[in-house]
Design goal:
Low-confidence stretches of chain B: 37-62, 72-105, 113-155, 188-219
Mean pLDDT of chain B: 49
Structural class of chain A: mainly beta
Helix content of chain B: 40-55%
Order of helices and strands of chain B: HHHHHHEHHHE
Radius of gyration of chain A: 22 Å
Largest sheet of chain B: none
Oligomer: heterodimer
Shape of chain B: globular
Helix content of chain A: 10-25%
Strand content of chain B: under 5%
Number of strands of chain A: 22
Order of helices and strands of chain A: HHEEEEEEEEEEEEEEEEEEEEHEE
Largest interface: A-B, 146 and 105 residues
Structural class of chain B: mainly alpha
């Protein structure tokens, strides 16, 4: 009886082989997921596993009259929180008695920035719906696998709740399938509405060091002055701005590159004369950063991408030859090595 | 409980379980009602102590968890040979695992409208991940050195600023991942090093066939 059941499961798994690449249904699942994450009201607890670390976090996402606010709280003792809304992102680090405030400079609301997963994404990822609806974490889920086609980006394995498309389980993995980070929801409550009080920080930040930069620089006429000569295939400049960043004395040039799924920011700021230049690779969670000194400026590429990608992009930053021109919209791509 | 599970559990409590095995362990726990019940209890203890989630665990949390673990003969008997372990060192993995075990049992999910969740005709325990295991695993395309240095030129706060500013341009999934990393990194080591700085540069293993076209990866 048991053998028969395993045979049945084995057969099921054979029939459940992924559909051919370019599955629009799989992309629709991704879009449903992005919409759900952005547009629904929810309150959940999840386990974030990265390497040997694991952290329990709570996420509260509130949408009210197109205004989005979100609170992410560490439940594991540090009391760290991130609270974001249309105006700013505030990071509370009570273990360091520090609060970081980043003013959002975009003209767009959080809702308008939803990604579109078009067919062109298939050039750099295979996106597949795997099998039928199965049970994961006790819920009916559809598995979607996003597999990068080269070494410059990460992939995802997603277990999306059948009804809401919320990712109940997700794994970030490299091109060889090695899992870099995993998120598992223990609790997820979809709400009609979420009280404003749930978005208040639990920490009293009195006496903390506040890092903020309120004065917003005026955007100069259509010229960022810097460019990235070569980008990994598929990455294009999607936006750029000159913005104030907490902790930086001078306005920072911020260029954003994306392949439609992964994104990399390049920050360029004049280096203060007395400060040591930063050089090298660093990691924050699943994000890598690569910093270098260039022409009296500090250049840093940051993104949820492999180290090779931020390094390649940072290495390729140069002053724009023609001061009047905006950065090249589609620089020559780095060769992909599938 | 089977022996491999005991070993994995032991490794997990010691914080030595390779990340890839956590998934497997979670699956096994979900099939083992006895183990699941024990761990579920720890998860409940943790949840109760945490209250609404924003209250820091009380000072005797470690002791109480330790007492709970000691009270479990199966767990106690599989503990590795007595080594001097600082409770604080294994508290986090243990607590984290307990939650993971809770996750394995069932994710509590409520919908806005009372949802009808029809019984699945079958409960597939095959993991689609195993079906689709990539065959190409001979070599990584790059290697990130594990060694880190606490003295570096990359100030933690500065990079956190950048990472937060960057996250606003990520996809919803990427952003959650990046911000979770900001909250989790270095939160428990008591140093001012929220950023792990890798001193050695990554060495690409598979060099580009035409190096002249890949300035970013040349050495």
């Amino acid at each position: 009886m048991i053998t028969a059941r395993y045979c049945f499961l084995l057969l099921m798994s054979v029939f459940a082989l992924p559909a051919r690449a370019g599955d629009p249904d799989a992309r629709q699942w991704l879009e449903r997921m992005s919409r759900a994450l952005a547009e629904q009201n929810y309150d959940g607890k999840f386990l974030h596993v990265s390497g040997e670390r694991s952290e329990t976090l709570r996420i509260i996402h509130r949408v009210d009259k197109d205004k989005v606010s979100e609170r992410l709280v560490s439940l594991d003792g540090s009391g760290r929180e991130v609270i974001r809304n249309d105006e700013e992102v505030v990071v509370y680090l009570p273990d360091r008695r520090t609060v970081l405030v980043e003013k959002r400079t975009g003209d767009t609301s959080l809702l308008a920035a939803l990604p579109k997963y078009t067919e062109s994404l298939e050039q750099h990822y295979s996106i597949e719906k795997v099998g039928k609806v199965t049970k994961t974490l006790g819920q009916r889920t559809q598995m979607i696998i996003v597999q990068p086609r080269d070494q410059y980006r990460y992939g995802y394995r997603l277990w999306l709740h059948e009804e809401t498309a919320m990712p109940l389980k997700s794994q970030l993995s490299d091109r060889n399938g090695h899992v870099i980070e995993q998120i598992l929801f223990a609790e997820l409550h979809m709400r009609d509405r979420i009280p404003v009080s749930d978005l208040k920080p639990a920490v009293s930040a009195e006496g903390f060091r506040w890092l903020r930069q309120d004065a917003q620089p005026v955007r100069v006429a259509g010229n960022v002055g810097w460019t990235v000569i070569r980008l990994p295939a598929g990455f294009r400049l999607t936006t750029w701005r000159i913005q104030a960043i907490a902790g930086s004395s001078a306005p920072v040039r911020h260029l954003v590159f994306s392949d439609g799924l992964a994104s990399v920011s390049v920050f360029i700021e004049p280096r203060a004369p007395q400060s040591e230049p930063m050089h090298g690779l660093a990691r924050v969670g699943a994000a890598f950063a690569y910093s270098r000194d260039l022409d009296g400026h500090q250049v840093t590429a940051v993104g949820e991408v492999p180290a090779a990608t931020v390094e390649a992009i940072a290495a390729s930053v140069a002053r724009a030859n023609n001061a009047a021109s905006a950065p090249a919209p589609s620089p020559e791509p780095l060769p992909a090595r599938p | 409980m089977t022996d491999p599970v005991k070993e994995q559990l032991s490794a997990c409590l010691d914080g030595e379980l390779p990340e890839g095995e956590l998934d497997l362990l979670v699956k096994q726990v979900s099939r083992d009602s006895q183990l699941g019940a024990s761990l579920g209890r720890y998860a409940l203890i943790g949840e109760a102590l945490r209250g609404q989630g924003t209250v820091a665990a009380p000072a005797d949390f470690a002791k109480r968890i330790a007492a709970a673990i000691d009270a479990e003969p199966p767990l106690h008997s599989v503990s590795p040979p007595a080594t001097q372990r600082n409770p604080a060192q294994w508290l986090r993995p243990a607590a984290g695992f307990a939650i993971a075990a809770g996750v394995a049992a069932v994710a509590i999910l409520t919908l806005r409208q009372p949802a009808e969740l029809p019984e699945a005709p079958y409960i597939a325990q095959t993991s689609p991940a195993q079906i689709n295991e990539p065959s190409d695993s001979d070599s990584a395309s790059y290697i990130v050195p594990a060694n880190t240095a606490s003295s570096s030129y990359v100030p933690a706060a500065r990079l956190t600023n950048y990472v937060v500013a960057h996250s606003e341009y990520s996809t919803p999934l990427g952003r959650r991942s990046v911000l979770s990393g900001v909250l989790a990194e270095g939160a428990d080591d008591g140093t001012d090093q929220s950023v792990e700085v890798v001193t050695d540069e990554p060495q690409p293993v598979d060099q580009p066939t035409d190096q002249s076209t890949a300035p970013g990866t040349q050495r």
